[in-house]
UniProtKB/TrEMBL annotation:
Family membership noted in the UniProt record: Belongs to the ribonucleoside diphosphate reductase class-2 family.
Domain Ribonucleotide reductase large subunit C-terminal: 158-697
GO molecular function, one term: cobalt ion binding
Residues of the TSCPD domain: 738-838
Function, in words: Catalyzes the reduction of ribonucleotides to deoxyribonucleotides. May function to provide a pool of deoxyribonucleotide precursors for DNA repair during oxygen limitation and/or for immediate growth after restoration of oxygen.
Catalysed conversion reaction: a 2'-deoxyribonucleoside 5'-diphosphate + [thioredoxin]-disulfide + H2O = a ribonucleoside 5'-diphosphate + [thioredoxin]-dithiol
Alphabetically ordered keywords of this record: Cobalamin, Cobalt, Disulfide bond, DNA synthesis, Nucleotide-binding, Oxidoreductase
Protein name: Vitamin B12-dependent ribonucleotide reductase
Length: 953
């Protein structure tokens, strides 16, 4: 794609020509004289984003301009997140052209100013090729680039930061300040606290040190207070502690103890759900915690021997612990609350290109960026599905040559950005400019594997993933060596040249021994082998421009921008997805990768159509017509009846890790039934397989996490003969996502709102009452009253008991209402329970209590009976005579022919759609911005509705 001052680079169109200082850029997608904008069809759209819970408009901008090929979701995300300028102001961006021009123009100018291009013509080709790739969703920079580049504000291009803290109060206070400034800018940071003396060591004054766990408390409170970028999501942070730190056990137990506190407070009636009013009283919840283990410790675990904990100041062993017991405590804590994760120190530093400048001691919050303290990394990710080719005969191949050329283009742009970038602290700016760490990666791996007929957990799937990762990193370092020949190696290279070249050889050797499986991965491995040979040769001659080149990030918001089906290294969430339509509305579709996979596996068009129709109805492939059982594994997903096993995720990470400069952002999911021993196995296998970091999540391990929506049979307790058994009620909590009705009402001139939420299939579970423009006493009493009723309902008190007790209760305010079904009420309580009876009790139960709807009263005047006759009981009539929205509780007897027809639950994104189809709940919180359920993106969460993330990317 280029040639440099030292001679033509691989892929140049003009080999043999006279060398010129600067890069020669080759056209890949564009043609001379035609701008990329002129080759697409543009259209105007209106972007109106609402909070589905209350219908309020979160964002609105009409008449924005995008290519007609971009999805509604991608348009909404880019318009609301990345367009700059006040909404409604004349200077507000309104076209994707303006956004791309703002960013690409800045990159081109910086490249010209700093001598990257051989000629103005090469700068123009760079401009057009970069524009084309962004316009056609081939790749995307990370979010800070879109936020900041080309604007008047500081041009921060990095999302990932690593800080440092020393054993002094000044350094600890600097940590609080630096972390706060990073959070304020919408990014995240990580650091290692192991330099801080433990609580078992003495201060110079003679007293005991506080220890790092105590200082974590202050930083956690700060992170919870400072909302990232002014948004409502919490800051993202990572806290690491070495396994030989004397306070490591206290560190491991921090979140476990807090989780026990959450349970106790929840059972006492406090709102401890994610985002609940009372969850802020819980400590250590704003960070991901990881223990940094070394090979010595892991070998001690393997041997069952003791392990020494060392003083921070002297390095002497001050305590010895049973290694296997400590490892067990880590697994137990992770099993109970998903923290701590684990990082493998010796493996990380074995692949460190700059060890003479310091060890790698920490990572960013999502665990993919690992390098020197006080440094940063800017990210970009390629959309792998854009490189899948189908020939005229229907054969598939991965376009390795074009992929490599785009990697060269993107790495060039990423390095240029460091020339003009701003940084949150002086120390971070110095380190980043001296080592120029980059983080190229990819998205849509899961979709690519399925489309090519590979199971995610298969040798073929891992081989293709490994080959692509190896080609990406090899090409990146080859371009880095070419850049070094033009604009010089990174400042720290001279001191670290031997180590850097050693790591390049390690990557090359791993590429050489990797297993080749089939016709898809073998050509990619061949291209990667050639790239690594060039890396060794050019690196020896020119050195390298970048200390780090690649990571696998979560690709949250930018994955939506590129219309990717899967994020980062993740598999498909499920086989069905939620698609927004132009002009409003949505529809459920089977993933486009499914037909491609079936075609690759040899199925005929009519067979493909039948399988797709079956998946649309059932959400899985089990017993799909004509589908051979040996092909089921190709369609395994992250959720569902055939969910990918934990070790399937670990093995995929191990396939990619040897070919990455950094690490992989990924959480290994375990079912709720998983044991502590299984967590131990995952953590131990991660070490054996050469991973750099690992985190697990066991379904429903957190209190604020929604419980499974699948019905569970209660265990039958048989009393022992001649013993008295005490039966106590058990509280049945509602799942995090629960259906509900909000009703506005007026009673005697007093206005209010009632929200009644239900179990998805089991009746009323809670009531919230809000009085408008009333004194604090009445409003407070209504709050307390609704909490008491809600707790009683969850402990099994029948709704009809409350109705019989509270209807006809008389007190002010009372009088006329605005509800046609309840025209008069003797009190607010009287109205509330009449309305609840009409909404949630079956006809027979409320009729016995004398509560009827206006239609039923009219029917009684006309026919002498409140009840519809069997002859005219159609579905519509049945829905009117039964609860308005939901089935009644199980403990109420009803006649079979009068079972209510529940209204269909509405999905607002793919995660909620999967939950409806599979009858279970995803392990994800609700988005604080728009109220929809988020989904996993690496070790972070992503909202498909508005693009918000819970992490730093």
């Amino acid at each position: 794609m280029t040639e440099t001052a030292s001679g033509p680079a691989r892929g140049s169109r003009s080999k043999g020509s006279k060398a010129t200082k600067g890069l020669r850029i080759e056209r890949v997608h564009t043609v001379p004289g035609v701008h990329p904008y002129d080759e697409v069809v543009w259209e105007r759209r209106d972007v109106v984003m609402t909070n589905w819970r209350d219908g309020s408009i979160n964002f609105e901008q009409r008449g924005v301009e995008f290519p007609d090929s971009w999805s509604v979701n991608a348009v909404n995300i880019v318009t609301s997140k990345y367009f700059r300028g006040a909404v409604g102001a004349p200077g507000r961006e309104s076209s994707l052209k303006q956004l791309i021009d703002r960013v690409v123009g800045t990159y081109r100018k910086a490249g010209e100013d700093h001598g990257y291009f051989a000629s103005p013509a090469d700068a123009e080709i760079f401009d057009h090729e970069l524009t084309y790739a962004l316009l056609h969703q081939v790749f995307s920079f990370n979010s800070p680039v879109w936020f900041n580049v080309g604007t008047k504000q500081p041009q921060q291009v990095s999302a990932c930061f690593i800080l440092s803290v020393d054993d002094s109060m000044e350094s600890i206070l600097d940590w609080y300040k630096e972390e706060g400034m990073i959070f304020k800018g919408g990014s995240g940071a990580g650091l290692n606290l192991s330099r801080i003396r433990s609580s078992k060591e003495l201060l110079s004054s003679g007293g005991n040190a506080s220890g790092p766990v105590s200082f974590m408390r202050g930083a956690d409170a700060s992170a919870g207070t400072i909302k990232s970028g002014g948004a409502t999501r919490r800051a993202a942070k990572m806290v690491v502690l070495d396994v030989d730190h004397p306070d490591v056990e206290a560190f491991i137990e921090t979140k476990v103890k807090e989780e026990e506190k959450v349970r106790a407070l929840r059972d006492a009636g406090f709102d401890m759900d994610l985002g609940g009013d009372d969850i802020t009283s819980v400590q250590y919840q704003n960070a991901n915690n990881s223990v940094r283990v070394n090979d010595e410790f892991m070998r001690a675990v393997e041997a069952g021997s003791s392990f020494g904990l060392r003083a921070r100041m002297t390095g002497e062993v001050i305590d010895e612990v049973d290694a296997k017991g400590l490892f067990r405590k880590m697994a137990e804590a992770a099993w109970a609350c998903a923290d701590p994760g684990i990082q493998y120190d010796d493996t990380i530093n074995h692949w460190h290109t700059s060890p003479e400048s310091g060890r790698i001691s920490a990572s960013n919050p999502c665990s993919e960026y690992m390098h020197l303290d006080n440094s940063s990394c800017n990210l970009a990710s390629l959309n792998l599905m854009k490189f899948l080719r189908d020939d005229d005969q229907g054969n598939q191949s991965f376009d390795a040559e074009r992929f490599a050329k785009i990697v060269e283009l993107v790495i060039t742009a990423m390095d240029i950005s460091i020339c003009f970038a701003d940084f949150p602290t002086h120390k971070i700016g110095e380190t980043t400019r001296a080592f120029r760490q980059l983080g190229i990666g990819y998205a849509n791996l899961g979709a690519l594997l399925m489309a090519t007929g590979h199971a995610y957990d298969s040798d073929g799937g891992r081989a293709l993933a490994g080959a692509i990762t190896s080609l990406m990193t090899g090409t990146s370092y080859r371009r880095s060596a070419e850049l070094a020949s033009v604009v010089g190696p990174y400042e720290g290279y001279a001191r670290n040249s031997d180590a850097h070249k050693r790591v390049m050889k390690q990557h090359s050797d791993a590429n050489g021994v990797a297993t080749r499986v089939d016709d898809l991965d073998s050509p990619v491995w061949a291209a990667a082998t050639e790239a690594w040979q060039d890396v060794i040769r050019l690196g020896e001659k020119h050195g390298f421009r970048n200390a780090q080149a690649s990571v696998l990030a979560p690709t949250g918001t930018i994955g939506l921008m590129m219309d990717c089906d899967t994020t980062g290294v993740e598999p498909d969430l499920a086989l069905v997805k939620f698609k927004k339509l132009v002009g409003g509305g949505s529809m459920q579709i089977v993933n486009n990768t499914v037909p491609k996979a079936l075609k690759r596996l040899g199925y005929q068009p009519e067979q493909v159509e039948a399988v797709v129709a079956y998946i649309a109805e059932h959400g899985n492939v089990i017993d799909a017509p004509g589908l051979r059982p040996e092909h089921y594994e190709v369609f395994d997903c992250a959720m569902g009846e055939r969910a990918i096993s934990a070790m399937g995720h670990v093995r995929m990470m191990a396939a990619a890790q040897p070919f990455l400069s950094g690490a992989i952002s990924k959480t290994v999911n375990l079912p709720e039934s998983a044991t502590v021993e299984e967590v131990e196995e995952v953590y131990f296998k991660g070490w054996e397989l050469g991973l750099k970091a690992l985190a697990i999540y066991r379904d429903n391990c957190k209190v604020g996490q929604p419980l499974s929506a699948k019905k569970k049979e209660a265990a039958k307790v048989e009393p022992e003969p001649e013993k008295i058994v005490e039966y106590r009620p058990v509280r049945n909590r509602l799942p995090k996502g629960r259906p509900g009705i909000t009703t506005s009402f007026t009673v005697g001139g007093a206005e209010g709102y009632m929200t009644a939420n239900s179990y998805p299939d089991d009746g009323l579970g809670e009531v919230f009452l809000k009085m408008s423009k009333q004194g604090s006493t009445l409003a407070g009493m209504m709050d307390a009253f609704s909490i008491a009723v809600s707790v009683g309902l969850q402990y099994g008190v029948p709704l009809e008991t409350y109705v019989s007790k509270f209807t006809n209760m008389r007190f002010e305010p009372a009088g006329m209402t605005d509800d046609p079904d309840v025209r008069m009420a003797q009190s607010i309580v009287d109205y509330i329970f009449r309305r609840l009876a009409l909404d949630f009790l079956p006809f027979e139960t409320r009729s016995a209590l004398g509560i009827h709807s206006v239609e039923e009263r009219q029917r009684h005047l006309d026919t002498g009976s409140y009840e519809s006759s069997d002859d005219d009981m159609d579905v519509e009539g049945l829905a009117q005579s039964a609860p308005r929205q939901f089935a009644a509780p199980q403990h109420i007897d009803r006649k079979p022919e009068k079972v209510a027809v529940p209204a269909p639950k509405q999905a607002h994104n793919s995660t909620e759609l999967v939950e409806m189809q599979l009858g279970l709940n995803a392990d994800a919180p609700l988005c604080f911005s728009c109220g929809t359920k988020m989904r996993r993106a690496g070790s972070c969460y992503l909202c498909e509705g508005c693009g918000s993330t819970s992490g730093c990317s």
